Amino acid sequence: MQKIISLHHKLESMFSHSEENYLKAIYHLGITSVNGVSTNAIAKKLSTKASSVTDMIKKLAEKKVLIYKKYQGVSLTEEGKKTAALIVRKHRLWEVFLVEKLNFNWDEVHDVAEQLEHIKSSKLINEIDALLGFPKFDPHGDPIPDTNGNLHLIEKKLLSTLQINETGICIGVKDSSASFLQFLDKQQIALGQEVEVLEKEDFDDSMTIKINNKKMTVSNKIANNLYIQK
Amino acid sequence: MQKIISLHHKLESMFSHSEENYLKAIYHLGITSVNGVSTNAIAKKLSTKASSVTDMIKKLAEKKVLIYKKYQGVSLTEEGKKTAALIVRKHRLWEVFLVEKLNFNWDEVHDVAEQLEHIKSSKLINEIDALLGFPKFDPHGDPIPDTNGNLHLIEKKLLSTLQINETGICIGVKDSSASFLQFLDKQQIALGQEVEVLEKEDFDDSMTIKINNKKMTVSNKIANNLYIQK
DNA sequence: AATATTTTTTAGACAAGACTAAAAATGTTT
DNA sequence: AAACATTTTTAGTCTTGTCTAAAAAATATT
Ligand SMILES: [Mn+2]
Ligand SMILES: [Mn+2]
Ligand SMILES: [Mn+2]
Ligand SMILES: [Mn+2]
Predict the structure, then answer these.
(1) Which end of chain A has fewer CB atoms < 10 Å from its terminal CB, N or C?
(2) What mean pLDDT value characterizes chain B?
(3) φ, ψ for residue B227 (rounded to 5)?
(4) Angle, to 10 degrees, between the axis of helix A78-101 and the axis of helix A17-32?
(5) What pLDDT, in 10s, does the model give residues A103-135?
(6) How far apart are CA B157 and CA B195, in angstroms?
(7) How many Å apart are CA A189 and CA A193, to the nearest integer?
(8) Cβ–Cβ under 8 Å, residues A126 and B103
(9) Which CATH architecture has domain A2-80?
(10) Nearest CA to CA, how far is B44 from chain A (Å)?
(11) Torsion of CA A177, A182, A184, A188, to 10 degrees
């Protein structure tokens, strides 16, 4: 009986709200870097202090979700990666739900999803998934991990890396801050639209593109935050 | 600027998860009792200790959501009542959502709703409300407070109080534990069905009723947990 | 009215998660 | 290699929410 109870509790993830936020942050930071994730990087991402991070990663290391050697940064174990991916799955599915079913704009969903991602119920998230027709991408073009935490990355490059005359489809944003998304709305740029590079300016790295059948010039900062599929 | 920020924070309720649970418990307990709600009653409802309750109600009294005099129990202020009612509103709307949109059975919704009721976003809950067509009752027949926290109580009595030959509609459950709800499912008793009292047994207060066009005998414990509208 | 019982509050402790300040380790220049 | 700068860890403190044990107040019983 003892065994069964502890097993049951293991199924629905036994991590606190705060622990989940750390796992998710380390997961996101770990995708890009090949080495361990540094204490400072985690602190910055979570807007907390490095000393708080040290405390927490010690605790998470004891729980076997990450590997920690003093002064060496951390990396998630397989269990840690899966746990984090399932939180990301929930975050992104909730974002789709908010946009598709509840009339949220794509710049309004993140903060609410930050809360909803911590709700513990596998039936809940799987039913949301089904209600939405098992979407593969969230409103910002980010891929949604499956029930096992696996996620198939798609080939994509930043608009800023395209050459003159290259074309592609706008499939995601790198920066999904409300201000950037609102800027895109104002310019009537949306995911799914075709893009063609017409000119590139060496001086400030701005580009002239054709998108949504309109010609426009975008700064390097913009081009650096739009993902294009070739 | 300072003013605006603090005003904004006031809009989306500045209570912790734990404070919200206390407010809701006191709200539920306060509906029945005309006097203040006792420390022990709160402790029992929240499965915590009386000393913890004393600590928390002092804090909530300072926040002006309840009135507390030592040894006299507590009662919610108007602000406290509204705050609590809006949490109850969220709980019940989420329950409807889970049943109507996500294929949850009425015995599966409570624990998930206990989590979802703490999500802070007025747009979220109002959109859920709209998606559901502004329901007035949750899956257990409990009324859903409106956006101002007002709730119109409906005339209802327990099945156990009906006399022989009286009829009515089954509109709610008093005990909404999973085991009771599962029992009702097994007996094919559901809300909305017509009930007629055929016999009452003095010895054990059991009743024979006609419900869903079937004759059946129910114990007093059952009859004491089913609400009937005349 | 005195005594016993129950309820409530106080006092002191603890765990989680955060912070500051200072020490230690690592990395970078000279 | 030594000095300087940065990163990370440690030590100690704080807040929130909980607990146990003991004291105080309110109720109930004799
Ligand atoms: Mn997001
Ligand atoms: Mn997203
Ligand atoms: Mn419920
Ligand atoms: Mn209910």
Answers:
(1) N
(2) 93
(3) -90, 135
(4) 100
(5) 999 999 999 999 999 999 999 999 999 999 999
(6) 13
(7) 7
(8) no
(9) Orthogonal Bundle (1.10)
(10) 24
(11) 160
C-alpha A136/C-alpha A49 separation (Å) is 35
| B226-229 and B214-218 beta bridge pairing | unpaired
Q: pLDDT tens across A10-43, in order?
A: 446 699 999 999 999 999 999 887 889 999 999 9
Q: Say if A8 is an interface residue toward chain B (CB within 8 Å).
A: no
Q: What is the pTM of this model?
A: 0.93
Q: Does B114 touch chain A (CB under 8 A)?
A: no
Q: Where are the beta strands (DSSP E) in B73-225?
A: 74-76, 157-158, 167-173, 194-200, 207-211, 214-218
The stretches of chain A forming alpha helices (DSSP H) are 2-11, 17-32, 39-46, 50-62, 78-101, 110-116, 122-131, 178-186, 220-223
What's residue A12's pLDDT? 62
Fold for A157-229, please state it: SH3 type barrels. (2.30.30)
Ligand nearest to the CA of residue B111, numbered in listed order: 3
**What is the DSSP annotation of A180-202?**
HHHHHHHTT--TT-EEEEEEE-T
Task: Determine contact, residues B41/B77, Cβ cutoff 8 Å.
Answer: no
- The predicted structure's pLDDT at residue B36: 92
* Cα–Cα distance, B230 to B168 (Å, whole number): 4
User: Which chain A residues are closer than 8 Å to B115 by Cβ?
Assistant: 119-121
- Domain ranges for chain A, please list them: 2-80, 157-229
